[in-house]
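How a chain folds remains the central question behind the approach discussed here. The record that follows shows the chain in one-letter code together with its fold in token form:
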Amino acid sequence: MPELPEVETTVRALRPYLVNRIMTYVQNNWPKHVATPTLPEMQMRLYGRTISAINRRAKYLVFSLDGDETLIIHLKMSGRLLVVERDEPADKHVHTIFGLDNGQELRFWDQRKFGRVYLVREPEQVLGGLGPEPLAEDFTVERLAERLHGRSRILKPLLLDQTMIAGIGNIYADESLFYARLHPQRTADSLTPDDVAALHAAIQKSLRLGIDREGASIDLYVKPDGSKGDMQNAVTVFRRTGQPCVQCGTPIRRMVLGGRSTHFCPHCQV
């Protein structure tokens, strides 16, 4: 699933093509893509709307439109967005298309069909339950400590909880725990103040590196132009089972926590 760095990369790539463009139509061949409202209502409400800004909240792309409308897209497991000329044949995995006033289309490619599109007047209707942004200025060590306080949950599943911290998925949770030298089975209430500070720095380090490298093309993720990100060439533990730790040489291990593959160094992470 595209995580915070992959979605941020997508947002940055789309801005030059979409900001100030006017939407002219919506097409859809997979009704479940449209979460709210109904497709006919979405078609009516999007017609003639201008895209004034594109931002990111957690793993969601947020398109601010004139007329107090907000289009929100979640790529889920396999989604990607691309801008192409209208006469270019659509791939069979393109399920939702937004027409633009310059003869181009924004196409939502989604092989596994888990992606979702929302059109709302109140973004909090979709985004309201999310935790803080881990790269925001107000996400301090103290704020992380407050959110961890009194919790006995295991760290790895806790980092994946979008109500706890927004935007972290499997890749960057594993990488963050390695940078912080914390075992993924540690519980939140076992962390010392130094551990919390290390985890805070590690989360920000892994996410910023992911953005700098324009995401990890490990599964289906590619950038809007079809090229790959480079984070997969910089991971320290994720999907490196049996390979030597970059710090100590100990073979990386894999376990399953909360139903998700988890990769760690048994020597460096305690």
